[in-house]
Amino acid sequence: MPFLKRGGKPTLHYVIDDCTDPWRNAPYLILQHGYGRSGVFWRSWVPYLARYYRVVRPDLRGLGRSPLDFDPHVGMGVEGFVEDLVAIMDALGGAPVHYCGESLGGILGIVVAAEMPGRLRTLSLVAAPVTIPKATQQAFGCGHASWQEALRALGSKGWSIAVNAATRFPPGTDPGLLQWYADEMGKSDVEALIALSRVASKVDVSGYLARVQVPTLGLYPTAGVVTGFEEEQIRRSIPGIRIVNLPTRFHAIQVLMPATCAIEVLHFAAQHDGISCREP
Questions:
Q1: Half-sphere exposure (CA, 13 Å, Cβ side) for 27?
Q2: Dihedral sign from CA coordinates of 96, 97, 98, 101
Q3: pLDDT at 17 over 90
Q4: How much is the pLDDT for 279?
Q5: Phi/psi of residue 244, nearest 5 degrees
Q6: What pLDDT is attached to residue 1?
Q7: What are 53-103's pLDDT values in tens digits?
Q8: Which residues pair with 204 in a beta bridge?
Q9: At what angle do helices 78-91 and 104-115 cross, to 10 degrees?
Q10: Listed residue (252, 128, 249, 104) closest to 178, CA to CA
Q11: Cα dist. 43→155, 235, 256 in Å?
C-alpha cells in the first residue's frame, strides 16, 4: 500500500491490485473515487479487472488513508486533485493509463482528458455529472440550511445515512450494504468533507467536454437522480462517447451493480488495447 510523499504537498495513499501475468507489461487502470469516499469503494471491482490490468486505487488528498496533513479549507480544489493524479501517474512510470472515475472522480477525469490527453489510454465515467445540480445540493442539505450545515450537524456518518436514502440507493437495498457504505464514509474527516463540498458545489466542467478526444465510456443510471439532467449534454458533447444506461435511477451504481460496471470498463479498455479478456 504505497504512500507518495512530496515535499510541501499532501501525502497520497494508493493501492495496487495486480494479478496479471508477470511476463506481460500490462497497462495500469486507475480507479478514482468520488466525494467523501475512498479506494475501498472499488473493492468489488478488483476481481474482474486485476487479472488483465494493474489496478490502482488512489485516495484523494485528505480522504481514505491519504492523511489530512494540510488545511482542507485552503488545500482542496480541482487543480490540486489533478496535480495529485499526475503525480501518481508519474510514480507509476509515466506511461498513459486507463482511467475510470466515479462521480467527482469522473469530473476530474474529464479535466485530465481535456487538458492532458496524452496521459490517458481511455476514459470511463461512472455516474459522473458536469456540475452538482442545485436540486442535488438541496438534497445534500438534508433539511438544514445548506450542505455544509448538514455535515456539521450530522457528522460524516450521519450525513451519509441521510443522503443514502435521498439519492444513492433504492428502497429495499441490502441493509448490510447501507451500513457498510455509511461506516466507510463516516471515516472521512467532517472538515475535509465541508471543504470539499464547497469545491464540488461550484465545479462545472461543461467547457471541457468537447475537448475530450480520448476514447470515452459513460456508465449512467437511467434518468438518474443526480445525473439525469446533464447526461444528454455529456452524450452530445464528448466526441464518440459510448453511453450505457443501467436499470436504476439511483446514483450509487458503482456498488449497486459492480460486476456489470467492471465488466463494461474491462472490455472497453481491452477493445482499445486489442486484447481478449476471456480465457478458454
A1: 18
A2: negative
A3: yes
A4: 76
A5: -120, 120
A6: 61
A7: 999 999 999 999 999 999 999 999 999 999 999 999 999 999 999 999 999
A8: 131
A9: 70
A10: 252
A11: 25, 28, 13
Q: Which three cell numbers stand for residue 127?
A: 455516474
d(CA 203, CA 200): 5
Q: How confident is the model over 177-234, as pLDDT tens digits?
A: 999 999 999 999 999 999 999 999 999 999 999 999 999 999 999 999 889 888 999 9
Cell triple for residue 164?
A: 443514502
Quick one: pLDDT at residue 278? Answer: 80
Name the DSSP letter for residue 157.
H
Chain length of the chain: 280
Q: In which residue are the cell numbers 445525473 written?
A: 227
Number of H helices, E strands in the chain: 11, 8
Q: Give strand pairing partners of 242.
A: 217
77's CB contacts (< 8 A; 6+ apart) are: 199
For 38-57, the DSSP string reads -GGGGGGGHHHHTTTSEEEE
3 state SS for 228-272: CCCHHHHHHHCCCCEEEEECCCCCCHHHHCHHHHHHHHHHHHHHH
- Grid coordinates representing 2 are 504505497
Classified as helix, coil or strand, 153 is helix
The CA distance from 69 to 75, in Å, is 10
- Measure the CA–CA gap between 124 and 101, rounded to whole angstroms: 6
DSSP 3-state assignment of 170? coil
d(CA 168, CA 251): 5
Per-residue pLDDT of 50-61, as tens digits, reads 999 999 999 999
Q: What is the pTM of this model?
A: 0.96
Is the Cβ–Cβ distance between 158 and 127 less than 8 Å?
no
CB neighbour list of residue 170: distance below 8 Å, 6 or more residues apart: 248, 249, 250, 256
Grid cell, residue 39, equals 479506494
